[in-house]
Amino acid sequence: MSTTTATQHNLLTSGQLPVYAPWVVLAGSVAATAGVLALLDRLSLGLTVALGVLVFFVAIMILSASVEGMRRAKDRVARYVVTSFFVIALLPLVSLVIATVGNGLSRFDATFFSMSLFRITDPASGGVVHAVWGTLIITGIASLISVPIGLFTAIYLVEYAGRGRLAAAIRFFVDVMTGIPSIVAGLFAYTVFSTFMGPGTYSGMSGAVALAILMIPTVVRSAEEMLRLVPSELREASYALGVPKWRTIISVVLPTSIAGLVTGVILAIARVIGETAPLLIAAGTAVRVNLNPMQGSMATIPTFVYSQAREVDWVDRAWAGALTLIIIVMALNAVGRLIAWKFAPKAGR
Prior knowledge:
The chain has helices spanning about 1-15, 20-40, 45-65, 70-105, 130-160, 165-180, 180-195, 205-230, 230-240, 245-255, 260-270, 275-280, 300-310, 315-345. By secondary structure, the chain is mainly α. About 30% of the residues are buried. It is flat, with a radius of gyration of 28 Å.
């Protein structure tokens, strides 16, 4: 029995490179490249890694083809190429997080979250509390405006409109809204509020309307796709029991797609919470706490970062504000995942 098992094991593993072989080839390729560049006096980290990876592709292709055959060699190299591009795409994100955390921790203290910039002249003092309140208020109002509009629009497109001309027109305008520059939304909101409340009117509500305009197409598109993923059999089973359409949507369609809907809303919020241009135009900026969205300028974290980054002595505040914004976005994603996990349909139910 043991001889048969060993024979089968050898048949399955014969003609394959060891697991450690790619790592050895990669290390050797980078080391050889570094040696050649050192001799040419052109040694640098970026050039060494780039040329070393190219040498690795060629070396692993030759080695794999000689041991495993050309078919497996091509498959192996293709996998490594895809992995390399994934790492390249990940590098900017990792470097951004490292830079933000490294530069933002110097001012990330209790004082920073308990003070505003009102009557602050010392670069080592002052805080972001007024901008945090402004971000939460403006983004919250924008969500209250855009989420119901986007969700009901998606329900209409999926459950009622079908493939009619009106549905096609709505989808066309949603696509157009997706591509409009954010500053245009800010100008629109500023113009509307200036028309009704007087020229030069800045308010948190105006900024919230600008952000809502940017959120609506994202909510519509994501919600529409999630609703379309609900199997038609579930709807038909509900109709067969005599349940009306509106009750089927509330009791069957929405609970089934709740995880995707929450994810779409979180993506929409993350899309606008870092917007700066529309808020500078519509909501302005401020140095003190303003909890009234209908009156006066209101600061947000993006405008706070922008204003602080313009002065060399205030850059530490800008980095700390950027770190705060990243933490808020991460918290929103965590809450969204928790809600999606809590309310998503469970297996066997």
